[in-house]
Specification:
By secondary structure, this protein is of the alpha/beta class. The protein is 45% helix and 19% strand. It folds into 3 domains: 3-50 and 147-317, Rossmann fold; 52-141, Rossmann fold (3-Layer(aba) Sandwich), CATH 3.40.50.1100; 323-400, 2-Layer Sandwich (Alpha-Beta Plaits).
Length: 401
């Protein structure tokens, strides 16, 4: 069976189990870019990401004896939850190996979906190594991306996109190991060969980008990234030939762009996206790809983001867009000085989110105090207005990162 045929078979198998996730038109992003922009919201899928598609189809193809022996998988997040839920639906025992440092929230979510969580190793690679050892005892290993049936399950998103946006000209897909983009590209090439498929990676984990560019699998050193769901050292041996054959372009985006995209999706569309899921919007706003296309679908692949991380991302995103600013100001240490400063902030229509008032630090001259302000502002022009107003009143200030 050819891959595109298996994608169609997967759709028939899983359509009663998975959610048909919404496809929405974004007036905001369309006006901003001069294109017709649609968002495929896999962040609203069961378990909060697309991973349930490939996991369920793969598990459904196991023989009765294989199902009886159970399955094992390794993941720090979305794949773990997808395998756990799919296994529970099918009555299969699942052992999920997760790195020891994985968040408690992800452990609890995986357990809630019915998976037996086993903590091992410092990262996903070490966890996968241990999962492979467990598989030698008779369990079936469910690989997160380098498996044709997993790829076929993920490719069902491509079928939905073609049906929901008949005139689509380009599909932008977050890319890690390549399972998602491989499946989508296979069915798009068969159904609509004129549609362009574009992959996006974090610049901190650009394995698919360099592999695509050099025509061979390239292993890279992964740096910490907001797009941790697609942060892998290298693409798959099965997925890479499919990427070479079916993908038109591969690009990278930076951490600041990802943070800004997460913020924009929340603020403009009330959509919670994890770092990987926001990369297509980051790529669109950067206008970095060479392909010309008017009608574009951005695949928001998941929404499983740690709330503590989200808080930091939002703060970073607000700072990047000029909506949040920190500044240090020296004041004469006299009664009423702080009150006059806060009055000046109010006159410029800024909102004080946080204030620190120091006198004893070594770098503060005698007779002065230092105030650190965190202000909510309307943007870069507003910040310039505030700085100009403060300086005209004789304040010495320093902008903080």
């Amino acid at each position: 069976m050819k891959l595109w045929e298996e994608v169609e078979a997967a759709q028939r198998m899983i359509q009663k189990i998975i959610l048909r996730t919404p496809m929405i038109y974004s007036d905001t992003f369309s006006k901003r870019t001069g294109k017709e922009v649609f968002l495929k919201l896999e962040n609203l899928q069961k378990t909060g990401s697309f991973k349930i598609r490939g996991a369920y189809y793969k598990l459904s193809q196991l023989t009765p004896s294989m199902k009886k022996r159970g399955v094992v998988a390794a993941s720090a997040g979305n794949h773990a939850q997808g395998v756990a839920l799919a296994s529970s639906i099918l009555g299969i025992h699942s052992a999920i190996v997760m790195p020891e440092g994985v968040s408690l929230a992800k452990q609890m979510a995986t357990q809630a979906y019915g998976g037996e969580v086993i903590l091992f190793g410092e990262n996903t690679d070490e966890a996968l190594g241990y999962a492979k050892k467990l598989a030698k005892g008779g369990k079936s290993l469910i690989h997160p991306f380098d498996d044709e049936q997993v790829i076929a399950g993920q490719g069902t998103i491509g079928l939905e996109i073609l049906e929901e946006v008949p005139g689509v000209e380009a599909i932008v897909v977050p890319t890690g190991g390549g399972g998602l983009i491989s499946g989508i590209a296979a069915v798009v090439r068969k159904r609509r060969p004129d549609v362009k498929v574009i992959g996006v990676q974090s610049i901190h984990a650009p394995s698919a980008f360099y592999s695509f560019k050099r025509g061979k699998v390239v292993e890279v050193k992964v740096r910490p990234t907001l797009a941790d769901g697609i942060a892998l050292r290298k693409v798959g041996e099965i997925t890479f030939p499919l990427i070479k054959k079916g993908v038109d372009e591969m690009i990278t985006v930076g951490e600041d762009e990802i943070a800004s995209a997460i913020l924009m999706l929340m603020e403009r569309k009330r959509i919670v996206a994890e770092g990987a899921g926001a990369t297509p919007l980051a790529a669109l706003l950067l206008k970095r790809w060479k392909i010309r296309a008017k009608k574009i679908v951005l695949l928001i692949s998941g929404g499983n983001i740690d709330f503590h991380l989200l808080d930091r991302i939002l703060e970073k995103g607000l700072a990047q867009t000029g909506r949040l600013v920190r500044m240090s100001i020296l004041l004469r240490d006299v009664p009423g000085a702080l009150a006059r400063l806060t009055t000046l902030v109010a006159q410029h229509r800024a909102n004080i989110l946080h204030i620190i008032h120091e006198r004893a630090a070594k770098d503060i001259p005698i007779g002065f105090s230092k105030v650190i302000l965190m202000l909510e502002t309307r943007g870069p022009n507003h910040i310039r207005e505030i700085r100009k107003g403060f300086k005209s009143e004789g304040y010495s200030l320093q902008m903080l990162s």
